[in-house]
Amino acid sequence: MHLPLSSVSPSPDFIAEHVRGIPRSGIRDFFEIVQSMTGVISLGIGEPDFVTPWHIREAAIYALERGKTGYTSNLGLLRLREAIAEYVATGYRLTYDPATEVIVTVGVSEGLDLALRAVLNPGDEVIYHEPCYVSYSPSIALAHGRAVAISTREEDEFKLRPDALRAAITPRSKVLLLNFPTNPTGGIMTADELEEIAAICREHNLLVITDEIYSELSYADTHTSIASLPGMRERTIFLHGFSKAFAMTGFRIGYACAPAPLIDAMMRIHQYGILCAPIVSQEAALEALRHGHSDMLEMRDQYRLRRNFLVHAFRNMGLPCFEPRGAFYLFPSIKPTGKSSHDFAFGLLKAHQVAVVPGTAFGTGGEGYVRCSYATGMDQLQIAVERIAEFIGK
After folding, report:
1. What is the pLDDT of residue 45?
2. Are strands 236-241 and 254-257 parallel, antiparallel or unpaired?
3. DSSP strands (E only) in 191-348
4. Between 189 and 25, whose confidence is greater?
5. What is residue 226's DSSP assignment?
6. For 96, left (φ over 0), alpha (ψ -120 to 50), or beta?
7. What are the Cα distances from residue 249, in Å, to 71, 254, 285, 361?
8. pTM
9. Are strands 102-105 and 254-257 parallel, antiparallel or unpaired?
10. C-beta neighbour count of 57 within 10 angstroms
């Protein structure tokens, strides 16, 4: 007698070992709970509350109306790659050939995946700094690399310290993965500080993958890309995209810039897995680069106001709070409450319907902290602050 197909469970042995060991995202699991509740004010997901500027949306609509619904080059529209090359030359002092040194990807997430898979052999080590974006360690594992985390500390403004990097390097070290401004802390690195890191990379022949998705959202300091420093362009893959600065998360569009051999290696993977980024999203991205600068500045000004409000509010509650230099996240310490990050976040959600992310979702160094996104309206932030103060008895 044959069992119905629906009652047969596949053996766990069918799942690849390196996939079985990957944890579920701490953010996504938490927000499965949030979505089952009503009346919650969410300071959780890192998505701008601004709608994509109208002229960028109109560019996507116009592309559809003109029948632009087909494939593009695997590397992306040449017009877009030319605009990207001009953009990074002006804003980052980086020069790339749009024909061979730029690839358009489905978000920075795909760009990171392509970069790691293109350069890693099994067992190669990738050094990165924590607390960090939740996908870094799993992405390294999926590329059969070994993730090596370096803890950063609030007293160092969550910067990567040169001595910590030196201590982490082994004969298997191949890549340093950077993200400044950083998700979840909002930390940055100055040009002088990056030069110390760059010198170590040159000395030990490390490739750098730099995720600079939040670079336009730097508040007081001038952003410097490590790729622009002497001797670094040839050993750096520069990742960027449109989700944060231009409020284009749903368009899923990013890009990578690097020397031609590295871009060619990434394209070889991209052509079989993705083929090309959606043409409508590419047309919208082109409009963003051409005419979206003022929109970005307006959104950044709003984020700065919200940051200032939240930093002041948390400090008034007695919760130490590093002032972010970039991005749109606050990473306050909740250690004075005596609660773990998990207990604080879940207790706040249950008792007062405010969602913040446990700091441990971003690595073990996040214990004692929570992440609060201020990519939400000021009216909601004010209510959230009142509820948090009530929760901690302030």
Report:
1. 81
2. antiparallel
3. 207-211, 236-241, 254-257, 329-330
4. 189
5. G
6. beta
7. 21, 10, 11, 21
8. 0.94
9. antiparallel
10. 15
